[in-house]
Structures are given as structure tokens and as C-alpha cells.
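JOB MANIFEST
job_type = single_chain_structure
chain_count = 1
residues = 696
[input]
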Amino acid sequence: MQNEIKIALIGNPNSGKTSLFNALTGMNHKVSNFPGTTVEKKIGETKLSSHLKARVIDLPGTYSLYPKSADELITYDILRNKSENDFPDVVVFIADASNLKRNLLLMTQVADLNVPIILALNMVDIAERKGIKYDLKKLQTELKIPVFAINARKREGLENIKAALLNENLKSSVNYFSIENLSEELLNEIGKVTDKRNNYSALQYAINVCDLLSENAKQINEIFKRHQFDVKKFQEEEILSRYTTIDAAVKNSRIQNQSIIKKSLTQKVDKIITHRFAGLTIFLVLLFLVFQAMFSWSAYPMEWIENAFNFLGNSINKTLPAGILNDLLVNGILAGLSGVIVFLPQIIILFLFISLLEDVGYMARVGFMMDRLMRPFGMNGKSIVPLISGIACAVPSIMATRSIENKKERLITILVTPLMSCSARLPVYTLLIGILLPATAKWGPFNLHGLVLMFMYLIGFIAAIFSAWIFKLFIKQEQKNYFIMELPGYKMPLLTNLAITVYEKAGAFVWGAGKIIVAVSVVLWALASSGPKDNIKKIDEKYYSILNTIPALPDSVIEATKLKISSEKLEASYAGEFGKMIEPAIRPLGFDWKIGIALLTSLAAREVFVGTVSTIYSVNNDSSKDSFSTIKEKMQKEYSIATILSLMIFYAFALQCMSTMAVVKKETESLKWTLIQFFYLTFLAYGSSLLIFNIL
């Protein structure tokens, strides 16, 4: 027996594949209760026995082997044996027991590829609550493959699956649909231009080549024309034939008739949740509560983190002698990191609420509800999934657009998703809102900070909608527009899944942003702490007499003079010189050279803005007791309300994230659209800030 086998997990969207993958491999991957989460294959390992381990591949959910979207294409490509390394030795097909008939269409297609297959009947408990129950032995007899009941979320029934995978006699010759009535000559010609496993696999490849793929398309089209092969008619006949088999199998193995099912609680709740007016109101109220919680619940943890960084800075000052190393650690690295880590509690709360709404099944309802709203603007209900997910991060959200079948709608969604305020903007907004409003600001019983933050997020959404409408006018329609989305049943969220998701997201923010911030902070500290020798020498000579010839000056005057010296040296530093170079371009927005430096450094990632500001003001201060709170106070004194609001609007619209640009280039396979997106959003940010500043 071989030492390793390859197992592919396949099923419809929302059937529980990723839950089973996590249960088998122990890997911590996100489990979300809406289609479009698994946009790339995930690979892990599990031990089946002392002498056999399995390489488990979690493939994106699809409804059939005729893919209509980019994520469905990944599943199809692996099953047609495009890559020898990934073609599975056995398939575990996960089916939703409460919607078995629809799930089995894909299962029969996969089985006909001549690969051993096991049917894992998931969510049996949910099906039974709906009055749906199956005799598994009869179902196994009808389908002629092993069938097991599991609960992937609770990790029940996994041992039966593992035991079945150890069976060397798993069938690989089940046949649900015959194509023997097709011309043998047609099949032979197709086989010559495909990497076929069998005739059915070759025919599938040929049909899909004419739709989503480009290789061999011309040759395949000529073969179809020569044999007068009608693709649409063939697919219709195939689906009808398969459902005849499926209907019989389901009917003969079902214990309880579905006709006795009463109107479920899910349907009753959905009448309210998805109502065109009540549903939207509920959605806005939920967002309002999230943003209130972000400020109210995070206040004390943020204060603790700030105090911890201050304690660490003071400890370094006491331990290390004054000098370059001390200055680098305190005013460079610690100042930059503290400016972002202090916002971690708010980010954790944001991720917790988003994950909770996804896990219970609410986000799918939002997509359904928003379809009518999105269509006039060139998108559909599936676009809301990446848009709402963009509140966390634009990179995975743009990848999630692969579930959108329509190419035009997918491109538009990619182009406007960065306008959704992501977690990287959260530190910027919180800092600037803190400058505008006192911490105790209230509007009745509500925290005014939370209201302003919600307003900033709504601005991003409104800008995304109207930007989509503009792109709709210029991007040509390439295919028909339709929208299909499955509404899953409501589920109780699992605390372990929520904890894993929040941990992963918060960890990605800390480590991803941390690496960039440390690098930028060190470089910025070096540039801000040194400058042309002549400039620095003039400042030293200017204040020499004050600090050295009049020792009787009060300490307050000496401290004020030292602060003025450090401020002038910062302005004369390499960073100051660089900031002044771009100041003429940003002065109309109300920005000075200090903000200019922060704008440039945050091109790498938006959250670097806060780290940059913290570094600049730490370098500009000789006191070791400087804290994030005092940095806000300094900016409050230095900048007007008009400048702060202008800066908030700029960050709401500007595409300042290199990772986002990289993933847009990858997903669109076009440098043209990447550059169009960057310049459009930069123009929108600049123009909006200019307007706001001049009005105020």
C-alpha cells in the first residue's frame, strides 16, 4: 500500500467542505456561511492509520462541472487532470442533507470521471428538523457508492469516513450517465486534442473550452460544427437524465415525506430579514451597533496597550544610555508600532462581529437583499459579499469576486471594492476622529465617535456604488446578466470557529502591518534624525548661546527651547526636505510637509500613516514620557478642523495599499485596469479633499 493518498473534498457552495477540511487536518481555515469563501484550493494533511497519511485538498464549491465562474474553474481544472500532482485518488463528496437532490447532480458528474467516490451526508440534524430523513443503507444501494452521515462542524462521523478511505476496493466505475449514443468518431476526434481520462471527461473539457478556456477552442469548435453537435441541447439532456436517476434514489431512500413540513422558522425570519425596507433598516442598525461597540468596548484595552508601550519606552530609557540605539528603539521602532498596535482591540471587535454575521448565515441574506439595489449600478447581489468583506481587508475580498459569474460585474466589483473602508483605515479614522472630538463626546446615549466612524464607512459604500455606475457606462457587456445565490439555514456560531477566525485576522493585521511599519519607521527615523550638515550646524549655532551661556534659565524655558530646536532640526532633516518637495502639491488640501511624509510612507499600507505620525512627533520631542494621547493633542493644536476632515476624506478614497494593487493585477490579468483604478481613486481622493477643505 502506498504511504500517501490524495483526497479531494468536493461539493456545492455552503455544503460544509471547509468545516470537514478543518476537522480532518486540524488546520485553521476560515469557515464562512456564504458562497465565495474558498476561492483557491487549500491543502492539508491527515493521518488515516499508522502507515497511511492523506493529502487533503479543499476545492471551491461548484454546482456542476460546467464552470461559470473563476473559482468553479479551479475545481474543474483539477478534476480534468490538468495537474497530475493534484488529481485525487479518491473524492469525498460533501452534500447538504436538507437539499440532497440538488447536491447530487454534481456528485454524479464527478463519479462519472472514473474516480473512487464517497458521499458524506452533512447537516443531517438540520435536515431532520425540517422533516427530512433518509435510510442511508437504501441510499447507498441506490447510488452504488459508500454513504455516511456526518456533522462536520461538530466533528461527528469522521471515523467512518477515515475507515472508508482505507478500503482499497472503493469503486471507481460507477456510471450515472451514458454518452454511448454520441458518434464514436466525434469522441475520438475530441480525445486527440484533450488530456482525457475517459470519453465523458474529454467531452466536458471540449464543452468548457468553448466557454471559459481559450486553449484548443478553435479546433474544438470545428469538430463540433463538423459533427453538428449542439452543446446546449446535450447539457439539457444530461441534466434531465441525471435528475431522473437522482429523483428515484432520493424517493426510494427517503423515510419521511417532505410534504408534511410546516413553514420553518428560517422562512419566517427571512420574511423580515430580507424585506426590501425592514431588511435594510435592520442591516443599518446592526452596523450602527458594531461601530458603537468598537469605541465603547475598546476604550480600556487601548489605554492598557498605550500604557504598556509607555512603560516599555521608559524602561529602555532607564536601561540604555542616551544615544543612537536608545533613540532608534524608543523614537523609531516603538513609536511606529505603538501607533498601530493600540488599535488592535477595535480591529478584533470588528472582525468578531463580521465573523459572527457570516457564521450565522446573515451575510447571504444581505447579498440577496442588496441585489435589487446593486443592479442599476452594474453589479449584483453576489457583489455585496466582497464589498462587505472589504470592511476587513480588500485583498481577500477582491479574490472572493471569483464567485461572480458575469465578467463585467466581477471587474466592476474589483475596481470599487477598495473604496470600502478596510481595517487598515480604522487606525487613521480613530486618530483623526479623536482629534476632532473629545473622548466623552455623546449624542444622547450614543458615542459620537461611533456615529462619525459609521458615517465614514457609509461614505465609502456610497462612493463604491456611484463609482460602479460610472464604470458601468464605459465597460462593455460581455455576457448575460443573472443572479443565483443560495440562502443557507441559520446556524448557531461555533465559538472555536469564531476564535480561530478572529485570531487569524488580527494576527495577519499585526504581523503583516508590523513588518511594514517597523521597516518604514526605521527608515523614517533615520531620515528624520539626520540632515545636511550645514543645516543642522546653523541650528546648533543659533541656539548655542541660549543653552550654554545662560544656565540660570528656568527649566520650563530650557525644555521649550529644546523642543523648538528638535522641531527645527526635523524640518531641516532629510525627511523634512523630502516633505517640503511635495508640499506645494498638497498645500491646497490643507496639508503640510509632515502630513506629506505620512502620505508617501502610507502608500505601502494605509495604517503606516499613524506609525509615521507617531515617529515624526516622537523624533520632534525630547521627552521620554510622550504618548499616543499627547501626539493627538499636538496635532489638534497644529491642524484646523478643515485640514483633519480633508485628510479623513482623502484616506476614505485613496488607493494606498500596494498589496491591493498587486492582487488587482493578478485577478484582472491587466496592468491597464490596475493603473486605471489607482489614478481614478487618487483623483477622487484629491478632488474630494480639495472640495472639503475649501468649503470649510
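[summary]
The beta strands are 4-11, 42-49, 52-58, 90-96, 117-122, 147-149, 442-443, 446-447.
The domain at 4-165 is CATH 3.40.50.300 (Rossmann fold).
exit_status = 0
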